[in-house]
Specification:
By secondary structure, the protein is an alpha/beta fold. Helices cover about 45% and strands about 15% of the residues. The protein has two domains: about 130 residues, 3-Layer(aba) Sandwich (Rossmann fold), CATH 3.40.50; about 130 residues, no CATH class. A seven-stranded parallel sheet has the order 4-3-2-1-5-6-7, sandwiched between helices. It has a four-stranded mixed sheet with strand order 9-8-10-11, with helices on one face. Helix 14 packs antiparallel against helix 15. Bound molecules: nicotinamide-adenine-dinucleotide and magnesium ion (MG).
Length: about 375
Amino acid sequence: MKGIALLGSTGSIGTSTLNVLRRHPEAFRAVALVTGSNAEGLAGQVAEWRPDFAAVVNGTESHGFARGREALVAAATHPDVDIVVNAVVGAAGLDATLAALRAGKRVALANKETLVMAGHLVAAAAREGGGELVPVDSEHSAVLQCVVAQGAAPSRIILTASGGPFRSWERDRVAGATIDEALNHPTWSMGAKITVDSATLANKALELIEAHFLFGLGYDCLEAVVHPQSIIHAFVEFPDGSVLSQVGFPSMEVPILYALTHPHRMADSGVRRFDPVAAGPLTFEPVRHDCFPAFDLGVAAGRAGGAAPAVFNAANEVAVAAFLEGRIAFGGIPTAIDAALTRLADAPADSLDALREADAAARRTAGEAM
Ligand code: NAD
Ligand code: MG
C-alpha cells in the first residue's frame, strides 16, 4: 500500500488522480490532500477519502482545515507518504517538489513549471535525498515508457502538440483571440492556465525544457511537431535511427497511473481501450513559428539556460493571468514574455534565492510591459 500526497487535489489533474486512486483502493491510500483555495471542494474530498492531513493554501475560507503555504511542504514530507502527486499549477509548487525529493519521496510531477524554473536544483534535491522524479505530463510519460521499454538512452525526442484551438488561424486573428476562444481546447480538458499555454504554444516550449531536464538531451535533439489528434504522445529516436512511440486516446489517467507504478504497470479497467480505426487518420504539421511567438521565446530561454527558463515561466504566468482577467490581449502574452527575457537576460541563477529573485523580477517586468 503506497501513501499518496495529492497537491492541487481539486484541480483537473487532482480530480483525475482521485479517479485513478478510486479504482485501486488495494494499492494506494490518500494520506494528504491540499488545495489552493477551494475549501468547499476539499471538504467533499475529505468526506470521501478521510486523509490524515488536509489543507487549504490560500483564500478566506478554510472550513477548519490547516492553512497556509507551508501546508504543501508539510503534506509532501508527511512520514506516511511514499508518492507526492504535485498537481499544483505554477511556480508555487517548487518548495514542495524540492522538499519531497530531499525527503526521499517519489514525486509524480504534473507541475512542469517547477522543473522549468529550477531544473538543476530539482535534480540536485533528488540526488541529495534519494527521491525520484517521474513525469505525469503525457508526452514525457510517453518518452519515459519508451526509454524503459528499450532500456537505453534516446538520441532525439519529438514531442507532439495538439496545436491548440488556433492551429489553423491567420496570425492577426490569433493575436486578437478572446478568452472563450483560448479556453476551447480541441482534445484535452484541463485547467485554465495550461489551456491558454496550449493555445499560445508556450506549453510546448515549457515541455521541451521539461524534457531537457528529465532526459538530459540538448535542445538540438528536442523537437515539437503538431499532431491535432493527440493520439501519438511522443516520438523517441534511438542511436540506430529506430523510433518508438506510446499511443492512446487522450486521457491523463494513463500517465498518472504510470507515474504511480513506474517502472511496473498495473491493470486498469477504467481506461478507454485503443481503437486505431476510431482514432482515425493521424496527421502531422510543423509548428507555425510566426503565429505562436511564445514557443520560440520559450525554446530560446531553454537554450540560454541559467535564469532564463525561470524568467520565461514567471512572465508567462503573469501574462496568462492578465489575459484571463481581460487585462491584455492574447497577442500581449508573448509581448510581455519578450520584455522580461530581454531585460533579465543575465539574471543570476546560482541558487534558489537567485532564481526566486529572477522569478519576482520577471513578474514585475512583464507587468510593466502590459
Ligand atoms: P487546475 O487549475 O485545474 O488545478 C490547479 C490546482 O492547483 C488546483 O487544485 C488549485 O487549487 C491549486 N493551486 C493553484 N494555485 C495554487 C497555489 N498558489 N498554491 C497551492 N495550490 C495552488 O490545473 P491542472 O490542469 O490540474 O494543472 C495542474 C498542473 O499540471 C499544471 O502545472 C499543468 O501544467 C500540469 N498539467 C496538466 C495537465 C492536464 O491535463 N490538466 C496535463 C499535463 C500537465
Ligand atoms: Mg503535456
